[in-house]
Amino acid sequence: MKSNKASLKSIASYIPEKILNNFDLEKMVQTDNEWILRRTGIEQRHIANDDENTSDLGTKAAIKAIQRANLNPQDIDAIIVATLSPDYFTMPSTACKIAHNLGLKNITAFDISAACSGFIYLLELAKSMVESGIKKNVLIIGAEKISSIIDYTDRSMCVLFGDGAGAGVVSLDDNFPIIDIHTASDGEFGDLLMTQRSQQSNICMPLSMQMKGNEVFKIAVNTLSNDVINILAKNNINANEIDLFIPHQANLRIIKAVQEKLNFKDQQCVVTVQKYGNTSAASIPMAINDAYEDGRLKQGSLILLDAFGGGFTWGSALLRFGGKNDK
User: Fold this and answer.
1) Engineering a disulfide at 317: which of 192, 211, 229, 305 sits with its beta carbon 3.0 to 4.6 angstroms away?
2) What is annotated about its quaternary structure and interactions (predicted)?
3) Catalytic residue status for 248
4) Domain range spanning residue 232?
5) Catalytic site residue from 248, 251, 269, 289
6) What is the pLDDT of residue 199?
7) Is the CB of residue 45 less than 8 Å from the CB of residue 276?
């Protein structure tokens, strides 16, 4: 019988080499390591080199993801990238740049803007494409060079974010399906977390990210918790059946608050925010890859993804990982 269910067949990431730790930030802005740890749980973040673009980070993650799916680049027939820090303001898309870097022509390639929820939005799009028969192998990438849009004199923001990329391939496989995905948005709160723009000579130029942290924290915890409760109930799955809960890595306090509300045990939760900071759309795939590379994520593992980001956007995904892990 022909397969008709989409599956996440691989995962990979690329982390820039340069590390910016809390003690480095103490020399740049009025802050200190203890405050950052207490408020965010972040110890360090990785920063791309000046000559590394978002598309470069995404390409390196993509190459590994394609290899782990036992495919060649030519087997990919669509590339979708989630990013809030694209190479160019509007065009060409980062996906088109990555397609070119991979030597691919005449394939579907485009970006989406869903902030930190981007990878879950990508999963939903890729699932629809593959299960409808429109595409066979969809490469999805969350890639961010947030250092390019961060004001490093703003101590409330510069401590939070890092750079990186994560990628995966979605193809048909009934044995390890993407079980369910939920995405949503509410533009009413868009001004609480945004990339501010100015008008110069009638051209909109991006400046830097701005956030009203306390308001975002409260809404994020309640929204993330409710979304998980709903997707588990809809699919008749108990929290203790989840092998790995992989939330967006924005802030350790948010992660712990959601974990407590949902009664997830520490061994069920994947936490990487201390190493990478908030990498927005790259956060979840980077965290999935960490679990893959340390052996916690295996083929068939039941994983639950949960994210919240600017827009506001949010989403959750329930799936069995379809990639092989020989580690």
Assistant:
1) 305
2) Homodimer.
3) yes
4) 179-321
5) 248
6) 53
7) yes
Per the DSSP assignment, residues forming a β-bridge with 303 are 244, 319
Residue of 115, 171, 162 whose CA lies nearest to 140: 171
Per DSSP, what are the bridge partners of residue 20?
45
Number of domains comprising the chain: 2
Question: How is 39-63 classified by DSSP, letter by letter?
Answer: HH---EEE---TT--HHHHHHHHHH
Instruction: Catalytic residue, from 22, 137, 251, 278: name it.
Output: 278
Residue 269 annotated to the active site: no
Residue 96 annotated in active site: no
Among residues 22, 46, 116, 269, the one annotated as catalytic is: 116
The residues facing 200 across adjacent strands are 203
Last-in-domain residue among 148, 174, 200: 174
Are 23 and 165 members of one domain?
A: yes
The token duo for 72 is 């060649």
Among the listed residues 255, 189, 182, the one whose alpha carbon sits nearest the alpha carbon of residue 225:
255
